[in-house]
Amino acid sequence: MITCVGIGPGHLDLTTRQVINLIEKADVVAGFDAVLNIISPVISKSAQIVALTYRNQAKELDSVGDLHRQGKNCVVAFMGDIHFSGFQLLERVEKSCGHPVQTVPGISSAQILASRGRVCFDETSFITFHRRGDLEPFKMHLVQSLKLDRNAIVIPRPFDFMPEKIAAYLIESGTEGERNVEVWENLTMREAAWTGTLAQLAEGSENTSRFSDMCIILIRATTPFPSQIFTMSEVG
User: Fold this and answer.
1) Which domains does the chain have, with CATH numbers?
2) Most buried pick, 69, 102, 151, 172, via CB within 10 A?
3) What is the three-class DSSP state of 197?
């Protein structure tokens, strides 16, 4: 059996009990190093660990598929939630084992950011650039969402479409440079936040990003939604 699980945004306290149970009982646990480091306390000492990289993932997932066919209980662990930006990896897992697999969702950093930023998902567009291939359809989706004056939660693509380049692209596409933006890193772990405007974020877009690959962006609507006004007045 192969099960793909979302381990949550980073802190083990936010990994669901179901996912922890699956990891604890697994004969084989596969994932990228950043994920394996988080869940290492709950991996059985007898389990075989398969570390994935962007270069070796196809080969290593084929080995996981082989172990699955030998009757091993295999878990492939994803950061956050599989259904937010993990579908390409899920497709590779299913290709390696030859059939659809069971998936168990987790809490996404996008959900944590919505909580930190006090925005409602009904009023917010979610776009992830954390994918291989052509980004143009997703770029246009972001531009159109901002034209509708919605909030946007955005996951960058390391390391060629990071926050500064996203901001520069949006301004070039006609988005207001004075829009308020927050960039959060390592949510639920070693948190850090940058706040400013799109124009300020776009500065230095030709240079190496000042942010890590564990960052996520909140671009705020220019006019707060009624739910945000109500929430902030309650807090104040």
Assistant:
1) 2-104 (3.40.1010.10), 109-228 (3.30.950.10)
2) 151
3) strand
pLDDT over 90 at 108, yes or no: yes
Q: How far apart are CA 228 and CA 234, in angstroms?
A: 10
Looking up tokens 């004056």, which residue turns up?
149
Query: Cα–Cα distance between 69 and 61 in angstroms, integer?
Result: 12
How far apart are the two ends of the chain, measured CA to CA in Å? 51
The total of other beta-carbon atoms located within 10 Å of residue 219's CB is: 27
pTM of the predicted model as reported, rounded to 2 decimal places = 0.91
CA 58/CA 64 separation, integer angstroms: 10
Q: Both tokens of residue 200?
A: 């300020």
Cα–Cα distance for residue pair 191/193, rounded to 1 Å: 7
**What is the rounded radius of gyration, in angstroms, for the C-alpha atoms of the chain?**
19
d(CA 208, CA 210): 6
3-state secondary structure 7-19: CECCCHHHCCHHH
